[in-house]
Amino acid sequence: MYPAHVSDETSVVPTRLLREHPMLPVVVLCFGGLTASLTQTLLIPIQTELPQLLHTSGANAAWVITITLLAGGVAMPTAGRLADLYGKQRVIAASTVLLLVASVICALSGSLAPMLVGRAMQGLAMGFIPVGISLMREITPPHLTGTAIAAMSATLGVGGAIGLPLSAFVAQSWSWHALFWVSAALAGAVLAATWFLVPHVQDAAPGRFDVGGAIGLAIGLVTFLVGVTKASTWGWTDARTLGAMAVGLVVLLVWGLYQVRTTEPLVDLRTTARLPVLMTNVAAIAIGFGMMAQAIVGPQLLQIPQVTGYGLGQSILEAGLWMAPSGLMMLLFAPVSARLMQRLGAKRTLMIGATVLGGGYLVGFFLMSAPWQVMLACIVASAGVGIGYAAMPTLILDAVPVNEAASAVGVNALMRSVGTTLAAAVMATVLTTSTTTVGGFPFPSENAFEWCFALGAAAAFLGVAIAAFVPGRSADALTPEAAPLAAASVPGPARR
């Protein structure tokens, strides 16, 4: 049976198909989330070759990676608000079209400018994920909703992990342009599946899109994150770093004042300030930091030459294959997280996830002398990510009005993105500050990797402490605002 508010008149999905295969739309949306998120790591295996491939400097080539992260951060809350106003399925389809066009632009690019345009558009397509998460409760029967949200949430990490070995294999087997042709083909498949297999839900709400708020958020967020991402290159105390971060924070402060005073804001900060939402979003920064740290540290440790005495000497493809199980682990733990939320509630599940994540970093701190040990540490950490990432949107959705669900989940995804961006900057600083020279080439020292594992553990356990301040609730309790959403998910005959 499918939710009552999914109407045959607005959906091209056969009613019988939904009744017999209620998880089919979930599989489609998860596949779309994987496709969108793998673009974040698509070019990492060939990052050192980008200056030569794009006929530009190393500093300029670095923007090919950075601009996708920046655009993704802006897209998540913006796409969420658009979904609340115009319908989630429409925004999901638009995000997929954006990813398809962006991938073709990148595939045809041979210089920096068009590549930056395409990569920025790929980042904007990341809005697919938070909107997909918020749609899950509207298209799934209640007994499948927890698992569906958990699986969709995990795609943020799974796609990035799978992207490493996939892109390494494609780049080594064919031209680097093939990376983007593969991305375009996947986006095309997602677009068709989304249109024909995901129900068209009548969930648009009257309102006005806050253009000024979107512009203000983009300026403030991008300026601040530019300072963060460039800190390892410019230096954390450099005037450019401090200036960019300060200007970004000031713009965001002004933006916040504007959001509070406008009648239809991009982000309802009063809702965001509710303790369950606020503390979940703060915890998201810490857990996002912990998630990205292992994605950065693991591959580097695996690829450092064995002559250093601690490096593991793996090729790019081998390193990606050692890291791949960690990504799959996030997906495998999605149903585990759903069961934990049913029995213990989302708050305790979030705390358990962050604890397991920290435990993974402790494993890495003490065991990093063989590839299988690094894989084990990343698997444990990723299991924690899978559990924690699933709990966060559930906490958010249970605490916000239905007509703000997508926007609120988008803000939570943004907070995770801020955490991952901070992790990338901090890990890069640690790994480049403490080095050892072998054969005339500098490599991160063994002590630097130990520090990275320790910082990842500290961030995860900080997430546990922050999550403890989320107001407690039973596993089945719902706020008054969330109650209509649950009622709408009761299976029954379609309304006509």
Explain how this protein is built.
The two termini are 16 Å apart. The chain has a two-stranded antiparallel ribbon with strand order 1-2. It has helices at residues 15-20, 24-38, 50-54, 58-86, 88-107, 112-124, 128-139, 142-173, 177-197, 211-229, 231-234, 239-261, 269-272, 275-303, 316-332, 334-344, 346-366, 371-397, 405-433, 446-467, 483-488; strands at 435-438, 441-444. Helix 7 packs across helix 19, helix 8 crosses helix 18 and helix 14 packs antiparallel against helix 20. It has 21 helices and two strands. It is 74% helix and 2% strand. The chain has two domains: 15-209 and 266-488, Growth Hormone, Chain: A (Up-down Bundle), CATH 1.20.1250; 210-265. The chain is mainly α.
Strand order of the largest sheet: 1-2
Instruction: Indicate the CATH architecture of the largest domain.
Output: Up-down Bundle
| CATH secondary-structure class of the largest domain | Mainly Alpha
Q: How many domain regions?
A: 2
In DSSP terms (H or I, runs of 4 or more residues), the helix count works out at: 21
Beta-strand residue fraction: under 5%
What percentage of residues falls in helices of 4 or more residues?
over 70%
CATH superfamily of the largest domain: MFS general substrate transporter like domains
Beta-strand segment tally: 2
The secondary-structure class comes to: mainly alpha
Radius of gyration, whole Å: 22 Å
Q: What is the CATH third-level topology name of the largest domain?
A: Growth Hormone, Chain: A
N to C succession of SSEs? HHHHHHHHHHHHHHHHHHHEEHH
Largest β-sheet summary: 2 strands, antiparallel
Mean pLDDT: 81
Weakly predicted, low-confidence segments: 4-11, 474-496
Which term fits the overall shape?
globular
Distance between the termini: 16 Å
